[in-house]
Design brief:
The complex is a heterodimer of chains A (358) and B (290). Chain A contains 8 helices and 20 strands. Chain A has 358 residues and is an alpha+beta fold. The chains are: A alpha+beta (358), B mainly alpha (290).
Chain lengths: 358, 290
């Protein structure tokens, strides 16, 4: 994964009036990576993207692109193109004119422009739409034209600001695969902003989880999902069980009214910790078979599985089960030590779990 | 979602339009329109196309060939083209600046522009007369400063000043509205695709504000072509406009036939200007006002 750094954000801070949106943010984006900035609204992800695009200038810090400082370079001089949230196609131009806009400005020949339009429309599966007006296209089609309009300029980096936010579920899933395909075909860097964790997990090479102007974790989708670095990341990515607990000593942790063997060491003795357990990692069995016993208090059918609430010692555990259980059934729960994720309690307020708004 | 909603609203209103539930509600207006729009038009056509003996003739239209009428039409066209040009040149940059700076001071300037529209236009023109009269306020100030006095009133410049002052809001507001409707993201998208400020202005802002410009031109050009009161008050009857000669035919010569014939000529010019504007504005977005 060690790829050459294409973009470096160094100590970027940005204030809007009295709100600190970004606080000394540092981020390196490698060449040909699909990087997703993920977080709840107001976490600073869109501001980060706008700073990359040149639409907002940071109060402090530097933006380095391919070894050069571009902090004060206007957007029209950057080898970066953006796909905007609201598509932002030019309403007075047809599809062809929209796509040709950037190429005409850079003074490309008629033939070159013609070929490029053809190529780009093929790439987004909309050949034959040259003469349509943006108002005659559906949301998904407009989005794809916006992508075509950006990529014909052969940018080194494509910025995408929640581009699928306005599309319905089915279309959104299709577009996710299309974007992965596009990224592979074009071989350029994608920086993608979303608040949708599923989207981030599906598409990204690297996920940057952000909250309140801070980067919470940078990692592959697997890392971020399986080994969240703090309670915010764990809470934001996927459903899970978050307990407050105490590390008794190495490889033994107490939470939810019981003691569990775990694999973590070096937390010290009797240290307060956060404990995360994914609902798919909990195994249900007959009473007495597992580590703790409880009673089923809620069952919801989700298609691929059942979401089951098990109450035990006054704590509610979320468990995924392929099998239906009746309400009130006595069960036991078992978690293997490997699946117990232990994290230090946040030291500052900034790292505290903020309720994600989704 | 809101789009869908709007469309549904629209289709519902179309339905209502197709089968009016209370057609008699339109009665008062139909009465009004018949008496004050349709009947006068019929009369203008009747008088304009008939001689004093009541027989059909085109002589009233041909009267435009007479030098006095021809010159007046020329003066009117000059005034309306000139007024439109002055208003456009002043209004476009102002509307652009105001739309970019939607702060409280911007809103205040809009109010300043709109405020005079609430005062009767004759009062406004009389106020301008007070300003530019030979012993008016401007010359008084110049005199106090020891500067030479200017002859302002009763010149063509005075008429331009009056018409431009009078019609200026009708040019600013539609252009301002059109510019406010341009989504900021679209301008950012243009920058993103490599356009500098000038190119963005030329390729994005100008074309997208065109409907407003066309509305503005129509709202200034058409009323000013038939202008005569401003010319009377500020031009001192030294410059006869087409509106003045039509008025004279009716009120002084009592020749309703020639007056109507000349009105029909004027109508032709107005219709031509509307057709030209309609051609320019292909998308028909400027149609809201007519």
């Amino acid at each position: 994964m060690a790829k050459r750094a294409l973009i470096e954000l160094i100590d970027i801070s940005k204030k809007y009036e009295d709100t600190l949106v970004l606080d000394e943010l540092n981020l390196t984006i490698g060449e040909n990576e699909f990087v997703t900035l993920l977080g709840p609204s107001g976490c600073g992800k869109t501001t980060t993207l706008r700073i990359l695009g040149g639409f907002t200038s940071p109060d402090t810090g530097k933006v380095i692109f391919d070894g050069k400082d571009i902090t004060n370079l206007p957007p029209n001089k950057r080898h970066i193109n953006t796909v905007f949230q609201k598509y932002s196609l030019f309403p007075h131009m047809n599809v062809e004119e929209n796509i040709a806009f950037g190429l005409k400005i850079s003074g490309k020949s008629q033939d070159y422009i013609k070929d490029k339009i053809k190529y780009a429309l093929k790439l987004v599966n909309l050949d034959g739409y040259e003469k349509r007006r943006p108002s005659q296209l559906s949301g998904g089609q407009q989005q794809r034209i916006a992508i075509a309009r950006a990529i014909v300029n052969e940018p080194r980096v494509l910025l995408l600001d929640e581009p699928l936010g306005a599309l319905d579920l089915k279309l959104r899933q299709n577009m996710q695969y299309e974007l992965i395909r596009l990224k592979n075909e074009l071989g350029i860097t994608f920086v993608y902003v979303t608040h949708d964790q599923e989207e981030a997990l599906t598409m990204s090479d690297i996920i940057v989880v952000m909250n309140q102007g801070y980067i919470q974790q940078i990692g592959t989708p697997e890392d971020v999902y399986n080994e969240p670095e703090n309670a915010f990341v764990a809470d934001f990515i996927g459903d899970n069980n978050l307990f407050s607990g105490t590390m008794i000593h190495d490889e033994l942790v107490e939470f939810a009214g019981a003691r569990f063997a775990c694999v973590d060491k070096d937390f010290g003795r009797m240290r307060p910790v956060d404990v995360i357990i994914r609902p798919e990692d909990i195994v249900m069995g007959e009473p007495g078979e597992g580590q703790i016993d409880g009673v089923i208090t809620d069952v919801v059918f989700k298609g691929t599985h059942f979401e089951i609430d098990v109450t035990s010692n006054g704590f509610v555990w979320l468990v995924y089960s392929p099998k239906r259980y009746a309400m009130g059934t006595q069960v036991s729960l078992r978690v293997t030590p490997f699946n117990i994720q232990i994290m230090n309690k946040p030291e500052s307020d900034d790292e505290k779990v903020a309720e994600p708004d989704e | 979602m809101s789009n869908l909603f709007a469309r549904r609203e629209q289709s519902r209103s179309v339905e209502r339009h197709n089968s009016p539930r209370h057609p008699w509600l339109a009665g008062p207006y139909i009465f009004w329109a018949a008496g004050f729009i349709v009947l006068p038009l019929v009369l203008v056509f009747y008088y304009g196309l008939s001689g004093p003996d009541g027989t059909f003739t085109l002589a009233n239209l041909a009267a435009i060939a007479q030098p006095i009428f021809r010159n007046a039409l020329g003066q009117s066209l000059l005034i309306s083209f000139g007024t439109t040009a002055i208003c456009l040149v002043l209004a476009y940059p102002l509307a652009y600046i105001l739309s970019k700076n939607r702060s409280r001071s911007g809103a205040f300037i809009i109010i300043l522009i709109v405020l005079p529209m609430w005062i009767n236009f004759l009062l406004r023109i009389l106020a301008v007369q007070m300003l530019i009269a030979n012993n008016g306020i401007i010359n008084m100030i110049l005199g106090h400063l020891g500067l030479a006095q200017m002859r302002l009133i009763n010149t063509r410049a005075a008429i331009f000043l009056g018409t431009a002052y009078d019609y200026f809001p009708f040019m600013v507001l539609p252009i301002y509205n059109a510019m406010c409707k341009i989504d900021h993201d679209i301008i950012e998208a243009a920058h993103d695709l490599g356009a500098n400020a000038l190119t963005t202005f030329r390729r994005i802002i100008v074309p997208l504000s065109l409907p407003g410009v066309i509305s503005g031109i129509i709202m200034v050009f058409i009323p000013s072509i038939s202008e005569f009161a401003i010319a009377d008050i500020l031009g001192g009857s030294r410059i006869l406009l087409f509106g003045n000669v039509i008025e004279q035919e009716f009120n002084m010569s009592n020749d309703w036939h020639t007056g109507s014939g000349l009105s029909l000529i004027l109508m032709v010019f107005i219709i031509i200007s509307m057709i030209v504007m309609h051609r320019v504005d292909k998308d028909g977005e400027g149609q809201i006002i007519w």
